[in-house]
Write a structure and sequence with these properties.
- Helix content is 56%, strand content 17%.
- It contains three helices and two strands.
- It has a two-stranded antiparallel sheet with strand order 1-2.
- The protein is rod-shaped.
- The two termini are 26 Å apart.
């Protein structure tokens, strides 16, 4: 899920100013919390089963941390892909208002 921009225009002596911030949607936050809880639960169940039933099942406890690493990877990749969103928004607004665009 892409970050969401929440902001508003404010009137100043020099003109209008767009103030806001990029944030993660509530669904994405809840999804990541549930994802991490499932990772922890899966590892805990695997360790308990390995202790009670068969020690070979202890390898199943590795699945939880691996899934957690995948979740963290997706979050960090999303943050890297969104790193240029502010600059892109500035360009779009400048072009829409027919202002000079600073092509950095």
């Amino acid at each position: 899920m892409a970050p969401q921009f929440l902001g508003r225009f404010s009137a100043t002596a020099e003109g209008s100013v767009l103030e806001g911030e990029f944030g993660v949607r509530w669904f994405a936050r809840i999804f990541m919390v549930v994802w991490m809880l499932i990772c922890a639960l899966f590892s805990t169940v695997a360790l308990v089963l390995a202790w009670v039933e068969d020690p070979v099942l202890a390898f199943g406890a590795l699945v939880g941390p691996l899934l957690a690493v995948v979740g963290v990877y997706f979050v960090r990749t999303g943050a890297e892909l969104a790193a240029t969103d502010v600059t892109m928004m500035e360009r779009v607004i400048c072009r829409a208002l027919q202002l000079p665009v600073d092509d950095r």
